[in-house]
Structure formats: structure tokens, C-alpha cells
Amino acid sequence: MFLPEAELLNIPPYTAVLWRQFVQHPYMMHNLFERGPAGPVFDSDHILNMTGKNSNLREYKVENLEELERVKSDLLNKPILFRVEVENEKNNDYVLVKVRKITSDEFAVLVNPKHPVVQDILARKLTEVAQYIKEDKSFCLKLDFSLPVIDWYHGKVDKRNSGLTTVDGDMNIFVHNCSSPDKCCLNPGYIVCCFPFWLLFGGPCYLIHRKLKCIDETYYFHGIPVVLQTEVIPRVIPWVRVHHPLLRVVAIRNLQEDPVTGAVENTHL
Fold first, then answer.
1. Furthest C-alpha separation in the chain
2. 267 vs 208: which has the higher pLDDT
3. Which of 6, 168, 211, 239 is a plausible cystine mate for 85, CB 3.0–4.6 Å?
4. Who contacts 62 (Cβ-Cβ below 8 Å, separation ≥6)?
């Protein structure tokens, strides 16, 4: 369902819904999604779906300013849907034993780029990208949306701040005119764990070549609140036109859908 811009401005910058609830009741996500036979359905002209495993969905290659403007229009105006699993691991030390406790949940996370706190950052970073294009420089901008989710979940399940919270699921978007960096060759964790193979297969050469060829920049969204949607409320269908067959009078009915059965009933005429 498409929402007017004024209503999008009222949606929080980050909204989280448990994935299993989102699949059963997708309209919990601000009525932007509907329930279909195979799961949530939505208008791809108004939503950016980043829930798939194909990493190409999260990459935008731009060769000139015109292509950048189209990408900029999408990123600044369309809500972005991610699917992530968040895990918190902490160790509890007792007298005789150490107990490791792992808490995890899977969420649908909606980022609202129309919210000022998100829009200002996106507009500024994409303006910097435009300058790189004007100067004919190779660049790769990585937008990492995961930190607000990590901080929110960590505060939710780890009150003593004694554990480590991580995200399993890609909440990154790349905008570039060359390529996104190879994780195996540039990720410090991979380099440390697989150092001999990194040396053997030319990791240092790739690293030097990448530094000389391309401007790699990463922006981590941070300090942004996340709102958890938990209530299953009836879905309101506000504008349904009913033509009277005899009087030819058009009435506007406010319909509600039962959250369990999906049945629609007329609540007001």
C-alpha cells in the first residue's frame, strides 16, 4: 500500500517486527505491506526490498550524474526493508561453572529515509558521491544501517552490558562506479583468521591496488532509535468506493480486516 509523503514523515526512522509476525500480519509494518498467498506483498515502485540473499540487490552502480539522481531518488524516498537475525552472547560466571547464554531473534526492519534523521545523512553522503563523479574519481560508498539495531537489541536483552551483540544479515547498501570491495581480501577478521591463504592468493596485492584505484568510504548510521511493533491491529482500508446499483450514489466505507482470519467487515458507512 502506498502512503502519502505526509504520513511517511510520521513513521519512525527504524521499525522492527519479529519476522514470523511480519509474515503472518505484514500490515503491522505501518500498512505498507499486505498479506499474499506466499507471504507479504508490496508495491515495488514504493518499497526497496533488501531481504533477499542476492547481494546484487544491495548494490547500485552509477556511471554518471543522471544515474546517480535516479538512485538518489530511490534511496531518499522509498522505505527500505531488511531481514536480519540479531544475536546476543554473554558468559555468566558462577562459583564452579561458566555458563554461556545466547539470545537471538529474527526481525523485519524498515528504515524510513523520509524521516529527517535518516534523510539528512543520506542526502549529504550522496552529494559527496556526486562530487566524486564530477572529479572523475573511482569510489565506493558503503551505507551500513546495522548499528542502531545492534544497540537497540543489546539494550533490550543485555541490561548489564556484559555480552556481545551481532547481526547476521546484510544491512549494507553500496553505491559505486567501480565495484564493491572483496570481503575476503579487506575484512580484518578474515585476514587474521586466514592469513596464510590471504598471503598466498594475493591479498596484499589486491589491498594495495584497491587503495590506489578507488576511494572506499563507509558510513555507519548510529544513535537512531528503533521502534518495535508488537501489537497485531486490524488493517484499515480507508478508501473503498461502493457504487449503489439503483441510486448511482458512491459511498465511502471504512473497512477493517480481522488480524487472524483476514475477513473484511464494514465498520462505518
1. 82
2. 208
3. 168
4. 68, 71, 129, 133, 175, 176, 177
Residues 6 or more apart in contact with residue 210 via CB below 8 angstroms: 181, 185, 186, 216
* Residue-level length of the chain: 269
Looking at residue 212, its pLDDT comes to 73
Distance between CA 44 and CA 39 in Å, rounded?
15
Mind listing the pLDDT tens digit for each residue in 68-110? Answer: 999 999 999 999 999 999 998 887 776 667 777 888 999 999 9
Query: What's this model's pTM, rounded to 2 decimal places?
Result: 0.77
Q: Render pLDDT for 15-55 as a digit per residue (tens, 0 to 9).
A: 999 999 999 999 899 888 888 887 788 888 889 999 987 77
Residues 132/178, Cβ–Cβ less than 8 Å: no
Reduced to 3 states (helix: H, G, I; strand: E, B; else coil), residue 64 is coil
Over the Cα atoms of the chain, what is R_g? 23
Q: List, in order, residues 6 or more apart from 207 with CB less than 8 Å away.
A: 185, 186
Domain ranges of the chain: 5-178+219-233, 180-213, 234-269
Taking alpha carbons only, the member of 15, 64, 23, 60 closest to residue 41 is 23
Exposed, middle or buried, 134 (CB in 10 Å: 0-12/13-18/19+)? exposed
Q: What is the pLDDT of residues 169-204, one digit of tens each?
A: 789 999 999 877 666 555 666 566 666 655 655 566
Q: How many CB atoms lie within 10 A of CB 153?
A: 24
CB of 30 within 8 A of CB of 3? Answer: yes
Are 220 and 143 spatial neighbours (Cβ–Cβ below 8 Å)? Answer: no
Q: Quick check: 62 and 175 in contact, CB under 8 A?
A: yes
Count of CA atoms in the C-beta half-sphere (13 A) of 217? 14
